[in-house]
């Protein structure tokens, strides 16, 4: 049999524990398309469009350059003819943040460029997943 004071104390402990643990709970982003779910399931650094690889990092043929002062990430091959260059307004650190970015993807047949608003959709294992809902473009970049 518990006394009213013991029940009250237990209730206070539960409230305090919940308050302490709540900020550390992982925020969940909305999955509003199949393409976004496919992107969030990827783990290779690079760019994805419409649920498919657009330009992904291959350690045998690509280099990664990160400039934390300019908030840029560049993946490129040895000849610099194939590349993915991302310039961010700032480097996101937490899920749910939106960030303005310029994305350039160059291949032998030309360059595609985008001005996008990315949502930081996932941060895990030293990588950041950024998603643009309107164009269904995602990019996985390394944390610096």
What would you note in describing this structure?
- The protein has 144 residues and is α+β, with helices and mostly antiparallel strands.
- The protein has one domain (28-142).
- The chain has 2 helices and 9 strands.
- The chain has helices at residues 4-21, 34-40, and strands at residues 46-49, 52-56, 62-67, 72-77, 83-88, 98-107, 110-124, 127-132, 137-142.
- A 9-stranded antiparallel β-sheet has the order 2-1-9-8-7-6-5-4-3, covered by helices on one side.
- The chain starts with a helix and ends with a strand.
- The model is unreliable at 13-26 (pLDDT under 50).
Brief synopsis:
The protein has 144 residues and is an alpha+beta fold.
Biggest sheet features: 9 strands, antiparallel
Tally the helices.
2
Number of strands: 9
Protein structure class: alpha+beta
Shape call: globular
Secondary-structure map with pairings?
Layout lengths: L3 H18 L12 H7 L5 E4 L2 E5 L5 E6 L4 E6 L5 E6 L9 E10 L2 E15 L2 E6 L4 E6 L2
Antiparallel strand pairs: 1-2, 1-9, 3-4, 4-5, 5-6, 6-7, 7-8, 8-9
Question: Which features characterize this protein?
Answer:
144 residues, alpha+beta, 2 helices
């Amino acid at each position: 049999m518990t006394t009213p004071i013991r029940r009250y104390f237990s209730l206070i402990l539960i409230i305090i524990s919940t308050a302490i643990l709540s900020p550390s709970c992982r925020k969940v982003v909305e999955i509003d398309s199949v393409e976004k779910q496919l992107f969030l399931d990827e783990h290779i650094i690079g760019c994805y469009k419409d649920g498919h690889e657009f330009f992904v990092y291959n350690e045998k043929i690509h280099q990664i350059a990160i400039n934390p002062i300019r908030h840029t990430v560049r993946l490129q091959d040895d000849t610099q003819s194939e590349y993915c260059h991302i310039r961010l307004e700032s480097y996101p650190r937490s899920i749910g943040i939106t960030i303005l970015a310029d994305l350039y993807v160059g291949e032998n047949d030309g360059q595609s460029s985008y001005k996008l608003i990315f949502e930081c959709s996932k941060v895990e294992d030293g990588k950041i997943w950024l998603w643009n809902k309107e164009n269904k473009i995602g990019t996985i970049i390394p944390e610096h």
